[in-house]
Amino acid sequence: MAIDREKRFAGATHYVLDDELASIVNISRALEMPLLLKGEPGTGKTMLAHAVAESLRMPLVVLNVKSSMKLVDALYQYDTLTRLNDSRFGDSKRDVSDISAYIRMGKIGQAFTADVRCVLLIDEIDKADTDFQDDMLDVLDQMEFDIIEIDRTIAAIHRPVIVITSNAKKDLSDPFLGRCNFHHIAFPDPEMMRRILSVHFPDLDTKLVESAVNAFYRLREIEGVEKKPATRELINWIRALMVDPDFAPEQLASGDVPFLGVLFKKSEDLRRASQITERKILF
Hints:
The protein has helices at about 20-30, 45-55, 70-75, 80-90, 105-115, 130-140, 175-180, 190-200, 205-220, 230-245, 250-255, 260-265, 265-280; strands at about 35-40, 60-65, 75-80, 105, 120-125, 145, 150-155, 160-165, 180-185. By secondary structure, the protein is of the alpha/beta class.
C-alpha cells in the first residue's frame, strides 16, 4: 500500500524527529506491519504514537502493558460480577440471558471495532511474558479474535497503525521480532536537543539554551546514576530556571546548578549529583 505524499508522517506540533525515524514509520504503514521501538526511557517512544495520531488525524488507543496482564484482557472483558448482581437483584435494564450485554472491549478490541482507522499504541511490551507477546502478534496478524463466551469472531473494521514500545528490560522472542519493523531511538545529541527545545521554547534566550544544554549533558555523564535525566526532565528544568527571578545562565558554567530535584528523580541519584556539583568536578 503506497502512502500518498500529503499523508506521509513527518512529525507533529511538539515532536521533532529525524528522517530515518519518519521513514520507518511510513514504511511500516505501507507494509501494514507493527513498528517496534526500543530505546532508553525518555527518548520519545511513547510520544511518537501520539505524534503519528496527531499528524494523521487519527484517534489514539493506548494499551499500557502490565506484567500480570493476560491477552484476553487486552481483547475484551466479560463482566461476570455485574451479570451476577443483575440476576440477583433484578433492577437492571439489561437482559441477563444476553451475555453480549456484559462484554466490554479491551484496548485492542476498541481499536478493531472503531468506526475510523486509529493508531494503536502497545506500550512497554517487554513487561509481558513471551506467550502474551507471541499470541498478541497472532491476533494482530489475523486482525481478528474470538469471544468464546458468545461464540463470535471480532474482525477489525480498519487495520490500525500499530506502534509497540519496549524499554529493553527483557528480551523479546525471535518470532515476535521477526514480525515487526524495528527502530532504536537513540538519546538526542546536543544539536537535536536544541531543535527539540526550540519547538517547546521558540523565544528562549540563546545563552540560557546553551548553558542549560551543556550542563544537562555533563550531568548525564555522572557515573553510577540509575535514572539519567531525559528530555522531559530537561524541559521541566528549563521551565524552573525561567521562573526563578534570581537565576542567571552564568551560574551553570561555574557549577552552580539549581533545582537538581527536577532532573534526578531517585534519592541516591540526587545525592550523587549534589555531591558532584558541590565539588565542581564536572564544571
